[in-house]
Amino acid sequence: MSQDIIKINEIFYSIQGESTHAGRPCIFIRTSGCKLRCSWCDTKYSYDEGENYTFEKLLKEIKKFDCNLVELTGGEPLEQNSSFLFLQILLDRGYEVLLETGGHCSLEKVPSKIQKIVDIKCPASLMHKTVDWDNLAFLNSKDELKFVIQDRNDFDWAIDIIKKYSLKGKCNLLFSPVFEVLKNEELAKWICDEAPFARFQMQFHKIIWDSEIRGV
Length: 216
Ligand code: SF4
Known about the structure:
Layout: E1 5-15, E2 25-31, E3 51-54, H1 55-62, E4 69-73, H2 82-92, E5 96-101, E6 115-119, E7 144-149, H3 152-164, E8 172-177, H4 184-194, E9 199-200, H5 204-208
Parallel strand pairs: 2-4, 4-5, 5-6, 6-7, 7-8, 8-9
Antiparallel strand pairs: 1-2, 1-3
The structure holds iron/sulfur cluster.
């Protein structure tokens, strides 16, 4: 594929539902395609559906929204080589840019000013063996590691990983319950009692709107 073409699943303007930026209006660009198959994936429609956009067309689309915060998400943005260049172009245009990535693709070529939100896949996702641990070397204090927790085993695993790689204080650590599987109260209690260094996060967009609605 040409360097200035990127396959896009959807573009929409909404409230940021996750991360330390939750609650802020944000333009979302969802790329098409992901090699992973997380057991609880809520964007399966992004695996194949999509159309090719030139960078020019994509920039024109997002200019329609009066917002300076943009998130490149997926699917998996970093499975497309053109994403690295597009991230730099967004920075050059003056956007504040978030990247949400599944953690299996190298972050080495991601521009340093991009704020990275990186999944660490826990065992219940069935994708924990895909984590690229070398990526930890590319994180800085404004970046975020997100653990989606389905059960107590995931929580204990996440705590072990944080200890093993000395992640406390390295970047933001987000713990998110699998929607409608792990009770919010349960995870909140575990965090208060055993992981005060972590941030509890919910998917705001699934609370504001119907959880099945796309494009929000
Ligand atoms: S990485 Fe994201 S898009 Fe890919 S399967 Fe997992 S949750 Fe779905």
